[in-house]
Amino acid sequence: MWAEQKGFLGEDVGEIVDKIITTLIGVAIAVGVSAGLWVGVNLLFHQTTTNWRKFSAIATGICAAIAAIVLDGNRALKNLGPQQSITDALDDVANVSPPVTMAILLGVVGLAVGKAVSAYRGNPAFLLPVAAGFAVLGLLLGLTRTEEVDLGRFADIFWWPLIVALLGGAAGWILGGIEGATTRRPIGLGAGAGVGLLFGAFLTNRARPEVDIVATVVATLIGAALLGGLATVRKRAPIPGVLIGGALGWIVGAFGLADLGGGPSGWGLIAMAVPFALIGLRIGWNDLPDVVQRAQIDAKARSWIFLGPAVGFISLTVIVPLLRTIYLSFLDERSENYVGFGNYADIFGNRLNEESFDLDNWSNLFTSRLFLIGIPLLIIGGIIGVLVGRTTGNAFTLSSPSSVPMAIGFFILAFALFTTVRGTVINNLWWVFTVTLVSTGLGLAIAALADRTKLEKVAKALIFMPMAISFVGASIIWRAVYTARDPSKAQTGVLNAIWVGLGRLSTGSGLPTLIASAVLLLALAVLIGVLVRAVVRKSLDGVAPVTVGVILLTWFTYRFLGPGIGGFRTGANDEQVADTILFVQNSPFNSFWLMVILIWIQTGFAMVILSAAIKAVPAELTEAARVDGATEGQIFWRITIPQILPTLGVVITTIIVVVMKVFDIVKVITNGQFETQVLANQMFNEAFSFRNRGVGSALAIVLFLSVLPVMVYNIRRMQAEEA
Amino acid sequence: MATVTPGKSTGGVGDFIYRMLRSIPTGVLWMLVLIWSIPTLGLAVNSFRSRDNQRARGWWTIFGDDQAPNLDNYEQVLTASSTNSIADSLANSFAIAIPATIIPIAIAAFAAYAFAWIEFPGRKWLFIGIVSLLAVPIQVALVPLLQLWGGGAHSTLPLLDKTVTLFPDFDFAGTSAAVWLTHTGFGLPFAIFLLHNYISSLPKDVFESARIDGADHFATFWRIVLPLSMPVIAAFGIFQFLWTWNDFLVANTMVGANRDALPTTVALANLAGDYGRNEHVLAAGAFVQAFFPLVVFFSLQRYFVRGLLAGSVKG
Fold it and tell me: Contacts of residue A684 in chain B, CB cutoff 8 Å?
């Protein structure tokens, strides 16, 4: 119906809109059916206290239907569905007018949803309008879709459950109204046996067992003894446990321990009838529950109804797959043979050794330039710390002037280490170290700087915006920034344009170069002036950052005026040639340029959370400190930081988890080439590109183990809060 | 952080310099904001420039371009008949993000209510167990889930040597359903955590008076808890929408091989993968991909931030 819309968006916009509408309707149906089911179960358990007979009938009917679905789903039952002619006839009727059929089908769904809404609003008037709305929806859907309605297949699937649900429901109805064990037990036994016999009669040939009588009896006795014993231990009546245990034992013995397929049909009947008869007997064993017991059943059921969907979904998609991945990590690439820790040995030892840990060049650490910068900084920090410690006793704390050079020195040393020792695992550690520290630090800095300034909201929104952009989009944005073009052409990437421009400026001799030099020298003079002033006044708080600034600026000015800085070098014929940086290709620092992307994304997260924490620091505390003459720096380090320490912990752990599994950025920009490989990308490549499920699973487990400490920390924290 | 020496200024030049230095923190802040914005700004500008102009000079020279800024790149990206499929993939992204946002909300709301207001044995441990799954990397489930959605689960029982179908084969391989089902499972721990934080902090009197009025858990949940929880539900919804719309890993694993079901992220990554021919539309493609998240983000930022804070500060 949208297909006529053409023009700027192209001809296929109709298809897209139709697809979205179909999706929305699908979601509406899925949510409607689920909500209907859920509300239905809740309404069912209402009946435990109001109408036990109804509850009994529906509950047994549903249980019987589930048994039928499981058996039918395992193709153990003969097709009870209507004959081909009937399904064809059904389809013919349904397709006389697909819109009407769809309207009727969705109308039924609408009845369930309407019931839910009525229960929600406490007003039955919602039932019919909602049902009608769904019917109209179905009509529209039927009008837009082109395929035929396949009602026959629908009937095929639901035939068995329907029949058995009716039988079970009838039995439940009878049992729900009868008092007295002497009548209840035979009725239960008979009804169960009846359902079992029905199943047995329609057992497919391939599911019929060659029952081994001895084994079956032994298994039944063991099952009965186990559950009966358990009931005794739990101080309950043993008989119900014996019955259920016997039924389960019988199923294991008669079907599990026997050869399936081609057994005598008589044994098929008995094999199915016995367990159902036992279960029927169990249902009829006890007398009808009294009011108190019914209330207990209701209360117990509610917690499971509310939790059931979540626990089920999480088990299905998280816990069971996790266990299976652990299992697969001990099998070979096609999950056929057990290889023990072979895959892990591949990762850490044999095959991928060179890629995971490349320690060969460790001795280069001591000659690396970063190392030679980092060590003096640490020493300077140490000296400042000792000097300050003598006068204030504040030698090596965060608020001491020693902290800035020490922190920078430590950071640079870490970089020296990460750039000499290479490999996938090392890369991951480097990512976690850098991104976590820098995003948290920058986020904290921005939160503190922006606090109570003009346009705070605008600044924060702009820093925060990358959180809304996908990692893929961010990678594309930054790939453009890192673009390096042929040195003979104009640079289109911002960074290389600046780099080459800087080189041109510092090696040039025109007016711009002169102005730049003058500005640099002036800035240097001002900074040195500030430094002298601070030293004279003995206010050492500001000395450290200013010193670092002076050192950096001096170095930069020297390079600018002297040998030149930036992307320019002297060519063979003594001419100046642009010298670009290959940000993506040049190892090892290309990894760092990839980390910048994640820092760009995560800083906003850290900023928002830390900003809220800073604003939550009681104003009385900071005001009191200010009255006492504390500087802004002292207030920040000695009052704000300790106050927001717990939040800082949350931010750091959250970012660690994100960084540990970084994938998209590496995938899109390098796909692990140029020594930028990380665990998650290697896992993807091994499992899905190279089809090596063993190593892929093992890598996933390594990732899991590496976030385990964070999980344990989170659990500890929650326990502390619960207590 | 340039912390500056305080103290009484002596007037004159010293005073001037001191005042200048006082403004350094604000200067640093706006400098950072500028650095943060330039990459996005550059790509935004480039998305309106022609292929030749993009290749000849950087985006900052847009005013010197020989061709005026135009929407050609966007037209090419949105026209499904072109070499790429960003336009098609928009529908697929909705097909993933909508169910993956709505369904976890419903499921998590029930569970969060149960954890907050229904007494049952093992409640505390089950809650801690579920929430600790927050940190589990999605990678640990990808291989088994790919098998599960594509072929069901069939197990050969040990000792008995019988194969039993534990989960039917719905043939979800390469469909949006495989993606959003996975997102639903992995979104639930966070959803339960977030909603529980909120629902458990509702005043106890509300529940007691409801109980006195004869409302059971079901009625309390529908009529009281759900309407009151709308702010936190909105917060989680925004979160989950951004996360599922922007996800690349799960989508690439589950539907990467099916060209008809690719969501925007995968289509965009494929576009970025074939350097050269289509590189000039990459900028436009990235903004088409980011359009809905950015709209949601800027229009509902309050809720988003509230969700972030509820999810982490309260912890």
Answer: 139, 249, 252-253
